[in-house]
Amino acid sequence: MTGSPAIKSAGGRGISIRGNDIDTDQIIPARYLKAITFEGMGEFSFRDLRFDGEGEEMEHPFNDEAYQDASILVVNSNFGCGSSREHAPQALMRWGIEAIIGHSFAEIFSGNCLALGIPVIEMETMQIGVLQEWVESTPNGEIYIDIVAQSVKYDGQEIEVNIPESHRKALVDGIWDTAALLKSNPEEVKQISGKIPYIK
Predict the structure, then answer these.
(1) 182: in domain
(2) Rounded distance, CA 43 to CA 36, Å?
(3) pLDDT for 87-128, tens place per residue?
(4) CATH number at residue 102
């Protein structure tokens, strides 16, 4: 039973965002939650950290031309804390992010990422620091994530990482998109719903 593609690996150029406790309001400011769809939301990622009150660009990795094709976001601790808005991973995905490596993540943010097929990879603090330094000094460097083996490879080295088992299994088995899963199994959904008293 599957409804979404299996995701066993991810790879690409990295982009580093430093700082602990970066919350969802920093990732996507609340005023953009009024949008009817998520289309075009990528351009508003970290909006208030990227532009001043007059709309002028400030120094920020998401504004840096060297990282415009990056797809692996490298962060620190408790990334995605704060409100549970699903717009945060939606904005990052639509900017171009396909996977996130960090020391730790807010639980709801991590779940919202999984629902979009975005792997969140947990790495030790010291290793994160080394990876961020490498990303910042090597904009064209490639990072490869093996979700099955739970490892990250870059610059000729391989680092053991952690992916929560429920997330790893959902990605590898192609069952991370629950909506697609339900749509691909209409008869089973009908049978199960028929057994639930309050749905009849």
Answers:
(1) no
(2) 16
(3) 999 999 999 999 999 999 999 999 999 999 999 999 999 999
(4) 3.20.19.10
Query: Does some domain include residue 60?
Result: yes
Note the Cα 68 to chain centre separation in Å: 16
Strand runs labelled E in the chain: 9-16, 72-74, 99-102, 120-122, 142-146, 151-154, 157-160
Domain ranges, residue 106: 9-174
Domain count, the chain: 1
First to last CA, the chain: 25
* Residues whose CB is less than 8 angstroms from the CB of residue 181 and which lie 6 or more positions away in sequence, other chains included: 1, 2, 3, 4, 175
Cβ of 40: how many Cβ atoms within 10 Å?
11
- Cβ burial, residue 105 (10 Å; 0-12/13-18/19+): buried
Do the strands 142-146 and 9-16 form a parallel or antiparallel pair, or are they unpaired?
A: antiparallel
On whether the CB atoms of residues 7 and 146 are closer than 8 A, the answer is: no
